[in-house]
Amino acid sequence: MKYSLLLVALFLSLVSTLEAADRTDTTRLTTHSFSAQDAVNYAMANNVQVKNSLLAIQLQQETNRQITASAYPHLNASISNTINPNVATQVIPNFISPATYQVLIDKGVRDGNGNPITMPNDFGFVAAQFGTRYSANAAVSLTQLLFDGQVFVGLQARDASIAFAKKGAELTSEVIKANVLKVYYQLLAGRTQLELLDSTLAFVSKNLADTRVLYENGFREKLDIDRVSVQLANLQTERSKVVNLLSNGYYGLKVLMGMPIEDQLVLTDVLTPVQVKEGMLATIDYKYEDRKEFQYAQIGRQLGEYNIKRYQLSKIPTIAMNGVYAKNAQRNTWSFLKPEQSWFTISNVSINMTVPIFNGFVTKSRISQTRIELQRTRNEIEGLKRTIDSEAASARNNFQSAISRLDAQQQNLELAEKVYGQIKKKYEMGVGSQTEINIAQNEWKAAQTNYVTALSDAMMARIDWLKATGKL
């Protein structure tokens, strides 16, 4: 009995532990309740492409620091210690013996035979060693670029290169923002479609219940019940498909935003015709400069002009200053750390000018190449203007047309719902047929689908219009 109670206690403890763990796992799930703007803000902080575009700015900043470093003094220190196990031997002409013979001749010294000493014709060579077994050197060198046209142009282009990288990041962010908004509002449209389906399912379910009552009272046939049952099954199947599409859409939005798939995402905005039409085509005027692509191209043109200037200035001389201060010592024993031993000072300062004279016309070719590339950029800017004009005109037409379709489908949906309700009342009163109610129900369902499609298309057209005019 005692062991049985112990087992029961252990079992209850295990169950409570598992329940607590399950509750803990549930609380670990992060739920995000996002408006459309919240979703965009999250994507700007977590989307991989946006992150990489921001890293591109940092990379350009590091490149600019390297260019700036070229204009700063470069200071280096070095220390070396050389050991010569065998000091190099050199063979040189014998310059000692002639001097000795000359002294003897000048003093009138004679040889053992009593003859005056004379200068031999050949004294041969002497093998001599120059240097010591150990040597050490400690030096500090300074290099300062005084003038280099290419470096100065690089310094001038730093701000433009950073602006180019930032504009590229803004362009990437705009594309991600547009995609996030489109997916977000498509999901809202899908949610609206699901709500309409649920409303239709409620009507059809009530119709099925009413038909059964009428059948039990002898006012309807079994065939009528079967027809309504088929309609209900079809609606339930369609609802299941919409739910699956919405689920996949949520996964796609999470990936686009950079959100973990396991996190819960709740969309707090509501998609309505009023929201779609808000500020609709408040102005049809637009400026090329409002488009990120145009701004990006303009900065690219400016960088191309700097590139030409850089190669042009490469034809003028460059001037640099170099300075060295060093201490040098030689020893036959390794005793460089003894303070009483002498170190010899070496120092020099030099200014060097390099004058480019001829390099096989490479510079001329580079200047021509960069001018061609600049002309291509200018042509692309002109082409971009025409593209912007076309996109803006097309987006305006699409938006206006989408709003017209939305208005028509909204009215059609209201009318179809009204017709269905009236026919249903006639059916319940026994003066309507099952065929009439089936037709009305199908028309109502088609009107719902068309309305949701028109609502989604209108919002997509609105986003495209804002993007085309640089106001997204």
Q: Would you write up a description of this structure?
A:
The chain has 472 residues and is of the alpha+beta class. It has helices at 2-28, 36-46, 48-69, 96-107, 149-156, 158-216, 222-257, 273-277, 292-313, 362-428, 434-468; strands at residues 31-34, 74-83, 89-93, 125-129, 134-147, 264-267, 318-331, 344-354. The chain has three domains: 29-70 and 152-316 and 360-468, Outer membrane efflux proteins (OEP), CATH 1.20.1600.10; 74-85 and 134-146 and 318-355; 88-130, no CATH class. It is built from eleven helices and eight strands. The strands form three sheets. Strands 2-5-7-8 form a four-stranded antiparallel β-sheet. Helix 6 (158-216) packs antiparallel against helix 9 (292-313). The radius of gyration is 45 Å and the shape is elongated. It starts with a helix and ends with a helix.
Shape: elongated
Q: What profile does the largest beta sheet have?
A: 4 strands, antiparallel
Number of helices: 11
CATH topology of the largest domain: Outer membrane efflux proteins (OEP)
Stretches where pLDDT is under 50 for at least 5 consecutive residues are 1-27
* CATH second-level architecture of the largest domain: Up-down Bundle
Q: For the residues shown, what is the average pLDDT?
A: 85
> How many domains make up the 3D coordinates?
3
- CATH class of the largest domain reads Mainly Alpha
Judged by helices, strands and strand pairing, the structural class is alpha+beta
How many angstroms separate the termini? 76 Å
